[in-house]
Each structure stands twice: as C-alpha cells, then as structure tokens.
Description:
By secondary structure, the chain is mostly helical. Helices cover about 65% and strands about 0% of the residues.
Amino acid sequence: MTSDRAYHHGDLRRAVLTAALDVIRTEGPAALSLRDLARRAGVSHAAPAHHFKDRTGLLTAIAAEGYTLFADALAAAPDLRERGVAYVRFARAHPAHFQVMFQPDLYRTDDPDLLAAKDRATAELRAGVATLSPTDDPRLTGVAAWSLAHGFATLLLSGNLDDAVGDRDPEEVFRRIGRLLFNSEDMPGP
C-alpha cells in the first residue's frame, strides 16, 4: 500500500497560530513547541516551519497580530479614558497576545510587520493622550496613562485584582480608578 494521500490542511498558518494562542493562554509561552503545535494541527512536524521558520518566528507573528488587534481596539475609542478601557478589554479578550506583546525577548523586534503594527498601536495611544488638556509634559502624561492601563490589565489577568474587583465589571472599575486619579477635566469620559 502506498501513502500517496494528498496533503491539504486549509489554513495551516491560522491553525498553528490558534493552537499556539491556546497553549500560551493555558501554559505560557515557554510551553510552545513547533512539534507539539504540528501534532495538534494534525500535520507533519516540519509543516509549521514553512510559515514561521522557528519558534521565535511564530512568537513574532503572534506579537504582530496582537499589536494589529490592539491598534484596532484603541482606534475605536474616542478619548484617553475609553482607550484605557479598550486596553483592559483587549487584554481580557486576547490574554495570549497580550502576554507575548510585552515580552520583546520572545520575538524579533526588528520584524517589519511587527514594527508597523506596533507603531500604529503607539500612535493610537498617543492620539488618546492628545485628547487631554495641554500638560507640561504630554509624554510623561502618556506614560502615566499607559502605566495605569497596563498595570491594571496585567494585575487583572494574573488574578491579583480578584478581591478588589469582585463581581463588578473590570472595565467599570478601571473607569472609576481613572476618575479617582485624573482630574475629571483632564480625563474625558463618563
């Protein structure tokens, strides 16, 4: 009997990315193995390398995709407060992307697709800061806002805010924290 079965998987790239995101979400990026992902996708162990070359290439693709999704989420928010809420919402909806995006030692930081996506996300964050009243140092204001949103999202994903948030909507909790820490005039929104 010959093994002349025709190979056809469909969208192998997407299948490997989806499997990788599942592994990262449940076990973290250190657990990623192209061989394991190939097994999960039902393809030869060499097939994922065709799309990603290696593990670092796969993580670079995940980070680039994450920054693209992140930029889209931020662009839909009208002001800085709502961009902070979009930040938290993105982290909750895409925890594996979020985890990889902010660990640049995992991926190729000079990848053109990644750089383009990251630049777009950065521009969207800066556009949110531009909705504030003029400050002495808009860059530091941006860092403060970014630190608040990123810190909240990271603490939320790691379970460190379970007691503080309780059964309340984390996005509403974040809005309330924003109002506590920023002047209502400086932090537009409800």
